[in-house]
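Q: Could you fold this chain for me?
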Amino acid sequence: MRQHADRPAITSATGLVLTPTMTFAECPALDVLCVPGGGGINALLQDAEVLDFLRAQAARARYVSSVCTGALVLGAAGLLKGRRATTHWNSHDFLAKFGAIPTHGRVVRDGNLFTAGGVTAGIDFGLTMVAELVGEAQAQLIQLGHEYAPEPPFNAGTPETAPPAVLAAARERVASIRRARESIIDAIVASGSAKAS
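A: Sure. Below is the predicted structure, expressed as structure tokens.
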């Protein structure tokens, strides 16, 4: 397959190579718009092309959603104002800066907006969306097929339950990403560029 100049391969932070099949301009109206999260979202917070694409798609989408820190990208696009939303615990306090109503939960729904907390909440989110789109029975079949019945070996999955030393180490591990993200978000908020569509 020939590589198109307007669709170059993208290499993730972990070395995974992704090859786009279409450009933003070629993308049809989406029924479900989902923004994933992770450390790489910082660049997207100020990417005018991405934010414009999200605003345009969100205006027509049946569902607008995010997993983990993808919610911050929705916020930067102005899509969280006055809406209940969640994200990864280490970025949860940033939601209010985008006018969202920060709400704790693995999956938070506000009308057609679905947001999920960090990483593993993405499984809960996926099952919730399947139930919404094609019914609870199908979601339960998927849950059973994946034997999704979590019983974590430790009660350290939230800042409220993690031992203080573990929480401190986790915060230290992501401190530089958080500082950079906070600086970007403060600049966005100060400029007023997180506008709604």
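A (continued): The longest strand covers residues 63-67.
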